[in-house]
Write a structure and sequence with these properties.
The structure holds 2 protein chains of 2 kinds. By secondary structure, chain A is α+β, with helices and mostly antiparallel strands. Chain A is built from 8 helices and 7 strands, in the order ββαβββββααααααα. In chain A, 34% of the residues lie in helices and 11% in strands. In chain A, the strands form 2 sheets. In chain A, strands 2-1-5-3-4 form a 5-stranded mixed β-sheet. Chain A has a two-stranded antiparallel ribbon with strand order 6-7. By secondary structure, chain B is an alpha+beta fold. The chains are: A alpha+beta, B alpha+beta.
């Protein structure tokens, strides 16, 4: 395959940035999208040019590091995949592909396609945990049966990889899907019960402080989420938040 | 220096308890005066950092990723072992210990392995308390599955994402301590050297990967939880960024590197499809619970499958060679990884590989799908179900168990594994070797510790499935938080470690010089070219099968390649910015040294054991032949300047509780 790539280049946070055009040829349809970028970068280094910086690590769809906005979609065409799991067979020979970084005020660009997503870490730090210290004397893991349905739902919410596609794709740059996934996981489990109210209030507060927008129920996040995190979680977080706001003294 | 393993006296089952009771404690007020650096935030690093902070120490944690949640432990799929005996199948601490020792081909320390088995149950309790959503049955209790090399079901799991769930558990514990200010987190930072002051490790030099700034960080002790070195092969199941640099820098500064040749080649990975390939993807060992591995019996069928004139489903049962079930009737498809990998290689070398490159075998789920379908039809009360109905019901059960893995396979290969068998081939996955540590997990440099895959201690020559997660969390939650006290008890009056000393200045200068040399190098070849070449040399000569001549050749080829690398590598851009090519160059420089040491270690070990298979040393049936009389030791290498001229130190392995036998899974 021969392709034309239009890629966002930005040397640093203070650079205005621009789209630049590159050609790549002899691309195999079995290559992953990132391997295609590897080919481009190999070419650029040999030509003595600056290669395109992009985030990636596990290349098997679980670390959440890769984050490209391809032809106007987070992680490109195809559902349920991260950029590293997208293969070139999803594109046509001769096609022009537009590649941009995540766009959100809370995810500033560091360089080219690399953004700073540490706002997500700070949301988790605000309460996305159970306050239990390491101890050899916690109760036996089977002492507290958990209905399979709850355990499964908690697991589904917990599969969020924190990539930020939900934010990038949302017209409001809302982080509701991300935040609600963690709130839901812990709200569905008895271990999370004790800190339930405090958790949702603090995490939502941090989310707002970071500059993420509100949710207007367009559902784009759910569509683009590589892990299929359900909107149901946002509904659950809203209920948790409302309950906590009414009953909590804090 | 003689190696002191510091294994406590007394009966095996009492060593750890007794040792814990004798470790010196640091009083809570004094802990506040002590700083610990943790490098790496995978299972071992994150759990250690969180636990230290909970105890009251001041922690600085470093990871090269943009968030600690992305460390490569996240990609572990199948599960975590623990001797809970919830399935009432006769499991016990002793059995887990025994299976691990035997699985490691009798090349690990009894005392370390027993401790690992002992704390395994606590790990599950701890993780459940953190809100880790393990798989449960309809009664609400935890479910288990089985893994290779064992005859019980002791593996806890969360679909095919167990590593993710455990890491997010450790990450949440770490996040809680970050929010309290007890852990200072340094994302996008890479450790580039350790600093030794008066013979003790007192800090590190790290590079801020965003600004390029080279920083000094002091501490009373440094813990490396920086993972394994499988990426020396270029193609592996490791993440792109996984590297040996932290461990290698420690080695260069005096820490012994143990058993570097013990690498694990995992039998079930998606085969290589082209030269452009950047990494290999694992298909969890848990699939061998239900998948059957086979190749055609006849060469003409192999040919027909390769050229597409026959499909695998066209072959009748009689025409298939389920070679693991044939060779190993008692363990069948669940033999340990080293055995399964070698068996696949044997069939492919004989010309039975089922894809174009001739390097693939089938992993087939059709029997399992039909078996589960029948049971499900009974549960749902479907009378006289049609074959299609049974298949449909069976596929649903398989989807619930392995859905994400099947999806991952389909995305990569464009084949539907519910309808046609998967094609798989062995790939580099894990490294059992690593920094030598004593029973307290301290390296041969005082104050420098190694935990998880970065150390060598628990898996001998071959790791059993679902034991890496167990070891990472055992070390981080339950071992090192106790054992580090023994060392730090002497440091309560030391005061903060100053970084304004000649030792720090010298280390910083060395790092900067190295960086500048790369940036100013007048080469024309990208880093990956050298890395690929190194990978090829390692895979051909120090991979699934090794021999004397090949290893000798590899050593000289690596030396040549290393020279060429320093002459011809091109690193674009500057040192004062985000520069991924520079990061790669610094890592590949270390791999180019490590590879040479691995070959030397493999050359020195004139026996076959676990993942180390020397062609000269095999039984008539092609099984590994150990030499217990001469090689029952840990090979700990001391850096002397040239990797292959490292000084060998031997730690004899003493077996008081198990009898050394030929490992048989027949």
């Amino acid at each position: 395959m021969n392709l034309t790539l239009k890629i966002w280049r930005q040397s640093g946070p203070n650079d205005k940035g621009r789209m630049e055009t590159y050609q790549v040829s002899d691309i195999s349809p079995d290559m992953s999208f990132l391997e295609m970028i590897d080919v481009l970068n190999d070419q650029l280094v040999r030509e003595g040019k600056d290669p395109v910086a992009f985030d990636h690590d596990c290349r098997e769809g679980i670390c959440g590091m890769c984050s490209m906005y391809i032809n106007g979609e987070a992680h490109g065409p195809g559902r349920g995949v991260t950029t590293c799991q997208l293969h070139m067979r999803s594109f046509k020979d001769g096609e022009t592909i537009y590649i941009e970084p995540w766009r959100a005020a809370a995810f500033p660009v560091i360089k080219d396609l690399v953004t700073d997503r540490s706002a997500f870490d700070r949301i988790i730090q605000a309460g996305g945990y159970v306050s239990v210290n390491t101890s050899g004397n916690t109760q036996d893991a089977n002492a507290l049966p958990i209905p399979k349905e709850n355990a499964d739902k908690a697991f589904d919410a917990a599969t969020c990889i924190g990539c930020g596609a939900c934010v990038a794709t949302c017209k409001n740059s809302s982080a509701m899907l991300f935040t609600s996934a963690k709130v839901s996981q812990l709200a569905l489990l008895p271990q999370g019960e004790a800190e339930r109210e405090r958790r949702v209030l603090r995490m939502v507060n941090q989310m707002d402080l970071e500059g993420f927008g509100n949710c207007t129920n367009t559902g784009a996040c759910e569509v683009e989420c590589p892990k299929g995190i359900s909107l149901e979680n946002i509904a659950r977080m809203n209920r948790e938040f409302l309950k906590a706001s009414i009953s909590s003294e804090s | 220096m003689a190696l002191q393993s510091n294994i406590p006296e007394g009966p095996l089952a009492e060593k750890w308890e007794k040792h814990k009771n004798n470790i010196r404690l640091v009083n809570p007020a004094n802990k506040r005066l002590i700083d610990i650096i943790v490098v790496g935030t995978g299972l071992a690093g994150a759990s250690a950092a969180a636990s230290f902070a909970e105890m009251g120490y001041n922690v600085k944690a470093f990871c090269f990723q943009d968030s600690p949640r992305r460390a490569h432990s996240i990609a572990a799929q199948g599960g975590i072992n623990a001797a809970k005996n919830y399935q009432n199948d006769g499991d016990s601490v002793y059995r887990l210990f025994y299976d691990t020792i035997k699985g490691g081909d009798y090349r690990s320390r009894e005392a370390n392995v027993y401790r690992l088995a002992e704390v395994s149950a606590n790990i599950i309790d701890q993780c459940v308390a953190q809100g880790v959503p393990f798989a449960r049955d309809y009664g609400g209790l935890l479910d288990n599955r089985s893994f290779g090399g064992v005859l019980v079901s002791r593996t806890f799991y969360a679909k095919g994402q167990t590593g993710q769930q455990l890491l997010l558990g450790a990450y949440s514990a770490l996040s809680r301590q970050i929010s309290k200010g007890k852990v200072q987190m340094y994302n996008r930072h890479e450790m580039l050297d350790v600093v030794i002051v008066d013979g003790k490790c007192r800090g590190i030099i790290a590079r801020n990967l965003v600004t390029g700034e080279v920083e000094r960080h002091g501490a009373h002790a440094v813990v490396l939880g920086s993972g394994g070195y499988g990426n020396v092969f270029f193609l592996s199941t490791n993440a792109m960024g996984s590297n040996v640099s932290a461990a290698w820098k420690a080695h260069r500064k005096g820490a012994y590197f143990a058993n570097p040749c013990y690498t694990q080649i995992h039998p079930t990975c998606i085969p290589v499809s082209g030269d452009y390939q950047s990494k290999l993807t694992l298909m969890s060992e848990s699939l061998r619970n239900d998948g059957r591995i086979w190749v055609p019996k006849k060469k003409e069928d192999v040919e027909a499958i390769r050229n597409g004139s026959k499909r695998p489903v066209d072959l009748s049962e009689d025409e298939r060679d389920y070679y693991l079930e044939r060779r190993y009737p008692s363990f069948g498809n669940l033999v340990p990884r080293d055995v399964a990998s070698r068996a696949a290689k044997e069939r492919c070398d004989e010309g039975f590989g089922v894809n174009k490159t001739g390097e693939a075998v089938f992993l087939d789920f059709s029997s399992a799908i039909m078996r589960y379908g029948k049971t499900e039809a009974n549960i749902q009360g479907v009378k006289n179900p049609s074959e299609d109905q049974v298949r449909q019901l069976g596929e649903d059960v398989v989807r619930a168990k392995y859905g994400n893995l099947f999806q991952m396979y389909e995305k990569i290969t464009d084949d539907n594994p519910y309808k046609t068998p998967m094609k798989i081939y062995p790939a580099v996955h894990y490294t059992m070797g690593g920094l030598w540590v004593d029973y307290n997990l301290m390296t041969s440099v005082p104050g420098l510790y190694a935990a998880g895959e970065a150390n060598f201690s628990d898996h001998g020559a071959n790791r059993l499935g679902a034991s890496a997660l167990m070891q990472g969390l055992a070390d981080g939650y339950f071992v090192i938080p106790y054992t580090i006290g023994e060392y730090l008890a002497d440091d309560i009056r030391t005061g903060a470690i100053s970084t304004d000393t000649p030792e720090f200045a010298q280390a910083e200068k060395e790092v900067k010089d190295k960086i500048n040399a790369f940036i100013n190098n007048n080469g024309d070849t990208p880093v990956d070219d050298f890395h690929r070449k190194l990978g090829r040399i390692m895979w051909d000569n120090c991979g699934m099968a090794r021999n004397e001549q090949g290893l000798k050749n590899a050593i000289s080829e690596i030396q040549k390649l290393r020279e060429e690398f320093y002459q011809k590598v091109r690193v674009p851009g500057s040192a004062e910015e985000l520069n991924p090519e520079l990061e790669k160059a610094l890592r590949v420089a270390d791999f180019l040294e490590l590879g040479e040491l691995m070959c030397r270690d493999a050359l020195e070990r004139n026996e076959s054991c676990g993942g180390h298979f020397r062609e000269e040393y095999q039984t008539e049936e092609g099984e590994a032949r150990r030499d217990d009389e001469n090689y029952t030791y840990v090979a700990a290498w001391e850096f002397t300047g040239t990797p292959s001229e490292a000084q060998l130190h031997k730690e004899d392995l003493v077996f008081e509780n198990v009898e050394l036998k030929q490992r048989s899974y027949k």
